[in-house]
């Protein structure tokens, strides 16, 4: 478990540190390195203060069991979010994250800001602080969650190692790390965060995992396989119907898709997962001798929540494509009608 925690934290924190590095590099190259480092240092100091305050509050007012359950639930929701986006990106339904594009956008924003009037630039310090602080907070959450509040040393080691590697490479190259396979890393991290979140949340609600920590690699493999199957299914183009459906069927299908698109989205994926957790909790309370079966129910429910979200995203994408095609077709008909009318007028004139 320690090796998994180190690897998962290293990859997850590495993704966050790469994004923070992109912002710091943009500030340093455009607004000055003193402003970039000042904002970065202030962000790290603020994060450390929050960590100390959070740690004191947790250890003095909340039991470890309750804290692990709460952290596990949030980690599960966090992991599902990452995995959901990773599946959409891998299947082509969502654009891949482009670190070079993010760097260009930050540079353009900083170049459009007011020029600095001193050794420290307010826009540069603020931008650097905001970027590092937000990414640092996510790293802290990942460390606490993956450490399980009992194995923090392994998670901290992974996060610090990622920071050293990213900072070292960034200092040597002085440009965004566009060659880092960030999207692949996010995919792996999504699988691992979802696995750890399922494990910790399940423990908190009374699920009995097979041989305890041995279940973690099994969860990673199960979620990885399920997500790959979803990617392959989403990459298969929808088959076109040979004949137009009946108007009543077409109207009913449109209504169902509208309702589907209304309720199935990123937020709905999280809501689905929460409902699954509540259902498994009730199952454990009702059938206390079936805690092993509850583990299968929880794992299957998490896969169903992610699958529902990505299928809903595909439906929304297909509906949007159909709308575009319909508009293009209507515009073409209008242009064709206009050209016919124009030809008739010319004939009459002649």
Brief rundown of the structure:
By secondary structure, the protein is mainly α.
Strands, helices and their partners?
Elements: H1 2-31, H2 33-61, H3 64-90, H4 99-111, H5 122-147, H6 152-173, H7 182-205, H8 215-235, H9 247-263, H10 266-286, H11 291-349
Helix pairs in contact: 1-2, 1-4, 1-5, 1-6, 1-7, 2-5, 3-5, 3-7, 3-8, 3-10, 3-11, 5-6, 7-8, 8-11, 10-11
Describe this structure in words.
By secondary structure, the protein is mainly α. The chain contains eleven helices and no strands. The protein has helices at residues 2-31, 33-61, 64-90, 99-111, 122-147, 152-173, 182-205, 215-235, 247-263, 266-286, 291-349. Helix 1 runs parallel beside helix 6 (152-173), helix 1 (2-31) crosses helix 7 (182-205) and helix 3 (64-90) crosses helix 5 (122-147). The protein is globular. Mean pLDDT is 75; it is low at 238-242, 258-264 and 344-350.
């Amino acid at each position: 478990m320690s090796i998994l925690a180190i690897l998962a934290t290293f990859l997850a924190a590495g993704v966050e540190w790469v994004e923070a590095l992109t912002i710091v590099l943009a500030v340093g190259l455009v607004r000055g390195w003193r402003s970039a480092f000042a904002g970065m240092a202030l962000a790290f100091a603020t994060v450390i203060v929050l960590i100390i305050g959070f740690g004191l509050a947790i250890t003095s007012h909340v039991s470890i069991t309750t804290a692990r359950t709460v952290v596990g639930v949030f980690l599960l929701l966090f992991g599902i979010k990452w995995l959901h986006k990773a599946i959409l990106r891998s299947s082509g339904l969502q654009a891949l994250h482009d670190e070079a594009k993010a760097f260009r956008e930050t540079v353009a924003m900083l170049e459009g800001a007011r020029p600095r009037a001193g050794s420290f630039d307010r826009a540069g310090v603020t931008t650097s602080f905001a970027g590092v602080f937000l990414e640092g907070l996510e790293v802290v959450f990942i460390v606490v969650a993956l450490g399980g509040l009992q194995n923090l040393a392994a998670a901290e080691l992974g996060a610090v190692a990622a920071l050293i590697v990213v900072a070292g490479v960034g200092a040597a190259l002085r440009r965004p790390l566009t060659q880092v396979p960030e999207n692949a890393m996010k995919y792996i991290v999504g699988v691992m965060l979802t696995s750890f979140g399922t494990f910790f949340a399940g423990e908190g609600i009374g699920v009995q995992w097979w041989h305890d920590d041995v279940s973690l690699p099994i969860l990673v493999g199960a979620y990885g396989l399920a997500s790959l199957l979803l990617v392959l299914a989403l990459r298969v183009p929808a088959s076109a119907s040979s004949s137009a459906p009946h108007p009543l069927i077409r109207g009913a299908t449109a209504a169902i898709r509208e309702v589907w698109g209304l309720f199935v989205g990123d937020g709905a994926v999280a809501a689905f997962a929460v409902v699954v957790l509540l259902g498994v909790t009730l199952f454990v309370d009702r059938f206390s001798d079936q805690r092993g079966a509850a583990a299968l129910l929880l794992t299957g429910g998490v896969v169903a929540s992610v699958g529902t979200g990505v299928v809903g995203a595909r439906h929304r994408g297909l509906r949007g494509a159909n709308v575009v095609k319909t508009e293009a077709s209507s515009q073409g008909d209008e242009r064709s009608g206009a050209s016919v009318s124009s030809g008739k007028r010319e004939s009459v004139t002649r």
